[in-house]
Write a sequence for this structure.
């Protein structure tokens, strides 16, 4: 829809029941109007100016613990499709429970889960999607279905990693884990980060699955984190002494300052600064990308460290995988590269006036060399719409199956504002 000035406008709907969602989806399908589904609002389609109908799921944000369904792996919890992870962690903490989500409080349960969800406990419990046991879905035809491994198993499989292609999830059912507390370590790095990354890589090869680490090296301009390089570690139990002992190969290195604490899990979820001005304003452009890697070999480490040094307005993020993440059979979910042991993201902010065309080209070419060795791209951190890149976010077999599921559940492509699976 464009107004008389040619500007795009969207009609924002805030349904509070699955039936209201179904009516909106049916309307959009009937009128062939583009539909944008918004949970936490961190995805690129939520930032983009768009026409059509925007479903804001913010009113569907309840978090309920179902005490009657405690089973071997945990307790089933029901989470509204528009909830954010900080609220989930707060409610679950009162029950001594947690779900491995992402690292940031304001990120939505909807977008993060449907794309996979790499969080602070990914080595302990797997992806967010690995903890999913059921979902209530409003389909493209306006039906409300309950999907699980027993009911509509193909749809349920596709929801676990295939993004928002298959319907609006109005309720996620997760198996939450008992969590009496965690230990947390910050290792601030002054100097060369390469030896620290090598030590972390080596210790993660045999480390208990209680340990998950992330690395970030960011400039002062990035509002999401303190400037500089640091390796953060979560131990999925309130055992700071064990974490201290496990991290010794890292903390003993020159230039590393380690602080170990025992916070609540909710406290380690990062808070994003409140947006100034227009809430929907898009973040600066990002030149670079991400990948899931079988190995963090020395060459990759050196490339990442050099990348950060060569480009002042750049960021480098890493997350350890393996553990529970790697034990889920590849074909169980649509998520790619279960053999990956590290996730890597690197790129530069494209801030007009700060970098020129030569700098952009240099970032692109350095990133291309890093990208060459990846197994797959992680769609949730691919923040631009690139239809040609979508097959590279899945295994070949998963992509073929996703196309079949899409043809069954959304042949008209009502749900296309996502990393779109084209039939
Ligand atoms: C600050 C920040 C931190 C992040 N940290 C992590 C992290 O630690 N780990 C990680 O894995 N990822 C992380 N991400 C990436 C994040 O997973 C994606 O950006 C994700 O898409 C955000 O989900 P959202 O619900 O907030 O966004 P939204 O923009 O609301 O949703 C993204 C897309 O998901 C689909 N969608 C959302 N909800 C539903 C629903 N209920 N039903 C159907 N479709 C739906 C829609 O297609 C929508 O366009 C982070 C992103 C940011 C910006």
């Amino acid at each position: 829809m464009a107004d008389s000035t040619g500007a795009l406008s969207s009609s924002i709907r805030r349904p509070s029941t699955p039936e209201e969602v179904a009516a909106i989806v049916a309307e959009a399908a009937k009128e062939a109007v583009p539909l944008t589904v918004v949970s936490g609002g961190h995805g690129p389609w939520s930032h983009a100016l768009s026409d059509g109908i925007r479903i804001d799921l913010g009113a569907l944000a309840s978090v309920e613990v179902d005490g009657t369904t405690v089973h071997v792996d945990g307790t089933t919890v029901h989470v509204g499709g528009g909830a954010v992870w900080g609220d989930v962690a707060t409610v679950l903490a009162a029950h001594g429970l947690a779900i491995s989500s992402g690292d940031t409080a304001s990120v939505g349960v909807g977008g993060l889960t449907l794309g996979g969800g790499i969080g602070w406990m990914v080595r302990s419990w797997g992806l967010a999607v690995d903890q999913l046991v059921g979902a209530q879905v409003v389909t493209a035809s306006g039906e409300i279905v309950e999907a699980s491994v027993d009911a509509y198993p193909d749809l349920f499989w596709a929801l676990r990693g295939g993004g928002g292609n298959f319907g609006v999830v109005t309720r996620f059912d997760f198996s939450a884990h008992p969590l009496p507390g965690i230990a947390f370590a910050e290792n601030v790095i002054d100097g060369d980060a390469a030896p620290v990354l090598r030590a972390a890589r080596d210790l993660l090869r045999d480390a208990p699955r209680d340990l998950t680490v992330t690395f970030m090296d960011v400039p002062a301009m990035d509002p999401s984190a303190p400037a500089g390089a640091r390796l953060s570690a979560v131990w999925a139990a309130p055992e700071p002494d064990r974490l201290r002992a496990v991290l010794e190969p890292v903390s003993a290195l020159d230039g590393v300052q380690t602080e170990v604490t025992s916070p609540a899990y909710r406290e380690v979820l990062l808070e994003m600064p409140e947006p100034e001005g227009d809430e929907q304003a898009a973040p600066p452009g990002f030149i670079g990308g991400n990948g899931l890697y079988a190995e963090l070999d020395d060459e990759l480490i050196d490339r990442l460290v050099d990348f950060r040094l060569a480009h002042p307005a750049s960021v480098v993020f890493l997350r350890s995988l393996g553990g529970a993440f790697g034990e889920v059979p590849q074909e169980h979910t649509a998520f790619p590269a279960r053999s990956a042991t590290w996730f890597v993201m690197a790129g530069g902010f494209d801030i007009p006036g700060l970098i020129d065309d030569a700098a952009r080209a240099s970032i692109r070419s350095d990133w291309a060399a890093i990208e060459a060795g990846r197994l797959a791209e992680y769609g949730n951190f691919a923040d631009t719409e690139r239809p040609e890149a979508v097959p590279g976010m899945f295994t070949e077999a998963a992509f073929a199956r996703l196309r079949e599921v899409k043809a069954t559940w959304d042949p008209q492509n009502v749900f296309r504002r996502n990393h779109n699976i084209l039939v």
About this structure: DSSP finds 13 helices and 16 strands in the chain.
